[in-house]
Specification:
Elements (H helix, E strand, L loop, with lengths): L30 E3 L7 E9 L5 E9 L2 E11 L2 H23 L8
Antiparallel strand pairs: 1-2, 2-3, 3-4
Length: about 110
Amino acid sequence: MPSLPTSSRVNAGRLGGCPAAIYPAVAMKATHIDLDLPEGWSCWLELQQSPEGAYTGKAELREGRDPRCVLVIAQQPNREALIERLKFRADYFVGEWRMRQGTGEAPRP
């Protein structure tokens, strides 16, 4: 079995260097979804439905054209529950990102 390519060793505090795997970009078959994010932010969502009717999903958050985060939403009983969970997590991520960049207020509770 071929090994994954790795970047240079990463120094994690007092631990010795650890090889960090380099993973190729994953192309998502996603659709744009409006989550009422701050201006300049967008979200692309890819949903999967189980035979039992539950939903899981991956969502990519972008600031402008730059990808900032991929959120994985665990199994939810229906599509509406998944969207609500995604809204909460996306809002929190964007708030944290903006606060750390010095461009916004703290995330909403």
